[in-house]
Specification:
The protein is mainly α. The protein has a domain of 63 residues. The chain has a two-stranded antiparallel sheet with strand order 1-2. A hairpin with a 5-residue loop joins strand 1 and strand 2. Helix 2 runs antiparallel to helix 3.
Length: 122
């Protein structure tokens, strides 16, 4: 829960459960559509080079996103590492520790920040 994305786990019977999160219903109850979609494939992203800014998020300049051809949306994306070098250099200018939580995630229960795949709302 500390890094915001650890929202799914299996109960004692092997049934997926969803914690109150950005993928839950507004009232914090399980959003079955998101649970089914998010747990359909048993794969996770593992990285040994990341920044987690949480509530101290930074706004990436559009020029860096445009240079690498970034598009918003869910799904796996690949970008040639040589195209990302300016973005990496920019990220490394922050006084943030690599592979560490910089700040706790924003509190979902005090904000109306839910994602509903049916209507595409955040």
């Amino acid at each position: 829960m500390m890094v915001g994305d650890n929202i799914y786990h299996k109960d004692g019977n092997g049934v997926w459960e969803q914690a109150d999160s950005v993928h839950s219903n507004k009232d914090g109850s399980v959003n079955k559509q998101m649970l089914e979609k998010d747990t359909a494939i048993e794969k996770v992203l593992i990285s040994d080079h990341f920044y987690y800014f949480g509530s101290k998020k930074v706004h990436v300049p559009l020029r860096w996103l445009n240079e690498i051809g970034f598009t918003y949306g869910i799904g796996q994306k690949h970008y040639p590492v040589e195209n990302c070098d300016p973005l990496f250099k920019w990220l490394n200018t922050f006084q943030a520790e690599l592979n560490r939580v910089q700040a706790d995630p924003e509190m979902f229960d005090s904000h109306d920040k839910r994602f509903n795949d049916a209507d595409g709302l955040h």
